[in-house]
Design goal:
Belongs to the autoinducer-2 exporter (AI-2E) (TC 2.A.86) family. By secondary structure, this protein is mostly helical. The chain is built from 14 helices and no strands.
Length: 366
């Protein structure tokens, strides 16, 4: 077969259906809008995510007989209260601890250099003076770059105060109207789509269930893991508890990799504060128990309705979407991977093959 005939056969197989072409156009237009106008429309997309998250609280209230407007007002007031708490209590605390950690970095570096000296004295045949000097040089350069990044971040943040004010004002307003006028906004969006949208509807319902479960479950997981980490670190008297707890909480966004990355600062702070002692071991054991409970108990409960995705697919999705959209790409890596999986399975020809594979004909019984 020639390349032209192969390409023609492939196009006829997957794009002969009218709805498949419509879906392709919608997907391309949506991703193009996000890539080209994502920075400009960032407050809108942020509000859309938050409204999607809060709708999971509004809907149960309305099902219990609470008027829609009253449910929206109650949920919105709770959202604003949490937002103000984060803005005026938690964020200043985290920032102060981050500044304190940067200021204490030279002392930690000196302490680490002392550990290397002791290591070289105990194992002179394994750790040579040249290796030790190389390690010290690498650590010094990394610490210097970390300080420069922190200074650059602080200076950049001074210039972005207006953007922060815009977020704090526009996002809550957009969230309120998205919740209040949800039916009208959804109806208007549907009116822009073709009348024949069976495939779009099927994929939308699947993704609505998957993404809603993921976003709400991941938000709950971040809060639970971060809170338990804060209580655990505070119990052991570990410094920078709020900063480390926030880091551990957000580490659940990246499966497998996040837990390993968060272990490094936790172990470093515990090591510099307690030394190689029983307290240091207790902190690491408690942190390991927390991660084990999160991975084996909490996450399966929260994401019981989410499609299973292979770990390799998750890591590739995190690397790809995180490289494109940064934090939000990491946050939505798994939902986007789920979207791609749903598209593959729901595509007209692919759906027939999937049904044939998942539901093989029953064997005849004698």
């Amino acid at each position: 077969m020639t390349m032209r005939s192969i390409l023609k056969s492939w196009v006829e197989r997957y794009f002969s259906d009218e709805e498949a072409l419509i879906l392709l156009v919608v997907l391309v237009a949506g991703f193009a809008a996000i890539i080209w106008f994502g920075r400009m429309l960032a407050p809108f997309f942020t509000a859309l995510v938050l409204a999607f998250l809060l709708q999971g609280v509004v809907s149960p209230l309305t099902r219990r007989g609470v008027p829609h407007l009253l449910a929206v007002i109650l949920v919105f007031l709770a959202f604003v209260s949490v937002l103000l708490t984060l803005a005026f209590i938690l964020m200043p605390l985290i920032w102060n601890q981050l500044v304190g950690l940067v200021q204490e970095t030279p002392r930690m570096f000196a302490s680490g250099q002392g550990w290397l000296d002791q290591l070289q004295e105990r194992f002179p045949n394994i750790v040579t003076p040249d290796q030790m000097q190389s390690w010290i040089g690498v650590a010094g350069r990394e610490i210097s770059q970390l300080g420069q990044r922190a200074l650059t971040l602080s200076l950049a943040s001074l210039g972005n105060i207006m953007s922060l004010i815009i977020y704090l004002v526009l996002v809550p307003i957009l969230v309120f109207f998205m919740l209040k006028d949800r039916e009208a906004l959804v109806g208007f969006t549907l009116s822009l789509l073709p009348q024949k949208r069976t495939l779009l509807t099927r994929i939308w319902h699947e993704m609505d269930r998957q993404i809603a479960n993921y976003i709400r479950g991941k938000s709950i997981e971040i809060v639970i893991v971060g809170t338990v980490a804060y209580i655990t670190f505070a119990f052991f008297g570990l410094p920078y508890t709020a900063l480390l707890a926030v880091l551990v909480g957000f580490s659940v966004l990246v499966p497998y990799i996040g837990a390993a990355v968060a272990t490094i600062p936790v172990a470093a702070v515990a090591g510099f504060h307690f030394g190689i002692s029983e307290q240091f071991i207790y902190v690491l054991v408690a942190y390991g128990v927390l991660q084990a409970l999160d991975g084996n108990v909490l996450a399966p409960i929260l994401f019981s309705e989410t499609n299973n995705i292979h770990p390799v697919s998750i890591i590739v999705a995190v690397l790809f979407f995180g490289g494109i959209w940064g934090f939000w790409g990491v946050f939505f890596a798994i939902p986007l991977a789920t979207l791609l999986k749903a598209l593959v399975y729901a595509w007209p020809r692919g759906m027939e093959e999937r049904n044939a594979y998942v539901s093989p004909p029953a064997l005849k019984q004698d």
